[in-house]
Amino acid sequence: MIYFRLKSPQSALYHRKVFFHLSIIYSWLKYIKRNIIPMSNNMLLLFIDSLPYELIAKNNLFSWLSFKGPLRPGVGYSFTQKAEILKGQQPDQLGYLNFWYLDAEPTAKLNIVYNLTTFVRDIFPFGDKVLHYLLARVWKKVANIPFEFIGRFNNGVPSSYAPDNPSILSMGKWEIVIGDDLDSPNPDSAAVALMQTKIESASEDRSFFIALPQLDKLGHLYGPDHENYLEHARYLDSQLQKLTEQFLQKYPDGVVCSFSDHGMLKVTESIHLSGKLFNIPGGRRAAYWLDSTMLRVWVETEEEKRIIHERLKTEKHLHILSEAERKEYGVTLKKFGDIMAITLPGIVFSPNHFGIRKPVGMHGFHPMHQAHQAFWGMVQSNRTPQIENGKLIKTIDFYRELLAQKELNSI
Length: 411
What we know:
Elements: H1 9-36, E1 43-48, H2 53-59, E2 67-72, H3 78-87, H4 91-94, E3 100-102, H5 110-116, H6 118-123, H7 127-138, E4 153-155, E5 174-178, H8 187-201, E6 207-212, H9 214-222, H10 227-250, E7 255-259, E8 265-266, E9 269-271, E10 279-280, E11 284-285, E12 287-290, E13 294-298, H11 302-312, E14 318-320, H12 323-328, E15 339-343, E16 347-349, E17 361-362, E18 374-378, E19 393-394, H13 395-405
Organism: Caldithrix abyssi
Pfam family, one: Phosphodiest
Protein name: Alkaline phosphatase family protein
């Protein structure tokens, strides 16, 4: 800190003049930066579902990216992992985690159906399954809900791409292409072709976002070690390089950023959890939900929580998230479960409440597992990244980098 000792009115006047001239110089520098030095807010943002950084590093893919590194995803699946990157918020701030959650309001009346059919379930061994099947034919929404919890769960999360869902995609003017929205057997190819057309015909003040879903589907179907998976990753490498070159030819000062939401692991084992694990005193059963790799349990008392927690500790294939981990990953809300556990890498619940088929490849494991980490990447621009090349970063770090690259720090 520099202190000025003012000895006379003349010296005070001198310092005011100095401050005035410095202000003029600062204003001119800001003007030059904004209006003379070529700076552009045009961005090409590339999203590849399920591309692990480990695969990129092992096969020297996406070498045309000037900067890249591993990206630590959050807890859960694509619904929230994409939102963490595009919105800069964890599940606690988003208000949702996975596709299904505890919410009795839409289905509470179905408890009557369950209670009135007790005698059927007592007489017929598979009566509950038959009744559940018939009910699901009328109302498809309940097909995944365990029959005994038919009136306690709901589903649905907002799309991270929706215009009315604030994210980086709602900041400025964007041309958006979502592969899943295209009626094509090859959605990635169709999406790239459509984006090429949009870039070619766009005005000067546009940014572009493309979401490519096909690698995720191939990963689930064949696993990450299959040639079909690797071949498609190579295809995306080539096609996105061409798309980047087209974008930079039109917008030489534009910014190109790329990312995925999680990795992909080969499924090596499946486990079945008995519902008896969740029985509690009083002849009741705690509500629980099994996604492919995640277990969530809801209880009413601390004693019930202690009982079930002790039982789950004996399950060697599970990692129970500690309170510290839940805080770190932003999943502390009770609506996400009083107990949360994740299967060890490569292990899935089968059957589970999301589906009955065991996939060949899966994600949703612990965020710190290397093969489950996503990737981030950028092409050299006139804005040097604030994140270090090759460094493992969090989703919030990449979100902040996107804002910086778009010169949206103040938003």
